[in-house]
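quick one: magnesium ion bound model?
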Amino acid sequence: MIEFSNYDILRNLLFATQWTILLSLAAFVGGTTVALALTAMRLTRNAIMRTLVRMYVELFQGTPLLMQMFLCFFGLSMLGYEISAWGAAILSLTFFTSAFLVEIWRGCIDTLPKGQWEASRCLGLSFLQTLRFIILPQAIRVATAPTVGFSVQVIKGTALASVIGFVELTKVGTMLNNATFEPFKVFTLVALIYFMLCYPLSLYSKHLEKKFNVSR
Amino acid sequence: MSLVNLHQVHKYYGDHHVLKGIDLDIKAGEVVSIIGRSGSGKSTLLRCINGLEQYQKGGITLDGKEVTTDDIQVRRLALSVGMIFQNFNLFPHMTVGENVMLAPTIVLKKSKAEAEATARAMLEKVGLAEKFDSFPEKLSGGQQQRVAIARALAMSPKVLLCDEITSALDPELVGEVLKVLEQLAKEGMTLILVTHEMNFARDVGSRVVFMHQGKVWEQGDSKTLLSNPQTDELKQFMGAVL
Ligand SMILES: Nc1ncnc2c1ncn2[C@@H]1O[C@H](COP(=O)(O)OP(=O)(O)O)[C@@H](O)[C@H]1O
Ligand SMILES: [Mg+2]
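yep, here:
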């Protein structure tokens, strides 16, 4: 059996942290992109599009992220689509992230006065022009703090990718524990690393919120 | 020829019958004041004229073309109808200049220089040339409303719809906005305004339309109608506001 010094444990965990960060970033970028499109769909006057978005949100908010990951990974392979753990993790985290962001952003956009839409319409702006020039610039100011706050949930959500075999922080933690039988030490370190990833984001989100509340 | 024509217009919100057969014919250059109690349908009437609300029966034409809430139609309509709101609805994230330049740039596809020249001219007209780079929140209510007028004028509309545009203002700021309207009226702009300013309606307006329970209850030349109301309802209403 290989001996693991404390240094080895930490080095392995930090190496795995890169994958946690990368997966979080990918999920966040994917989630934001999809959420943007869904938000635009939700704001149209087309009832079918709005219903589709609502169903999407309810589906992915109403089921555990773990099940979504299982379905993406095992389900897709059973249907004959070979998908890597990495691909399945990104896919399901994108669903998860976008479903929550759409709801968060909906709240932000709804705080803007209806008059902003009407004034734009009366000036002859198209729906997309209104979104781009009037609604988004104002909504972004409101939405930044809760969006950054939510990114913490995405980081924590990546831990679930360990169960489909994606080698990130939690998975490496489990592997190190199996090799060293020192669960307390290993998982304390794992938790500490998650905390150091998440806490600055929480702080930043609170800071943004304060700044926003002062400026308005 | 009439600029705005409403023929037997009916509007329902659900089963709430709000406009009950409105007939109205407005010619270019008229200044029409719509008066009436709260809830009588004045705002709804204006909003049907520029396609913000869909009416269910009858017809509205602007310059001979039918008005609907279809997006493309509304955008075409926006080229000839400007609207000013009670609470200004300026874009708070843009400077005064950008507010006025936006639609000419992205809707009329004017060059930036041309749009800026128009914007400066319109702000000059409402007496706010020096506020070009200010943000709306730095302005008084009266100034914000004048910016909103400049913003609408920059699209060179044929008719301006004004929905109680002085109602949200402190009394001492009402005058500056009415003065701008008066100037526009003198220049021949067609104005349709929902207002509680009876003096303005009498002195500047050419016609008064009294709405009651979703109908045009009484209308006529502003001076005649306001000094000699025919129906009890109008008499009562004028007793209440004066
Ligand atoms: N969006 C709406 N949905 C349902 N009812 C409305 C809506 N807007 C106005 N109403 C109703 O229509 C009637 C006329 O309203 P409105 O045109 O705003 O009157 P006014 O401007 O003369 O005060 C009122 O009874 C009001 O409650
Ligand atoms: Mg009203």
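The radius of gyration of chain A is 21 Å.
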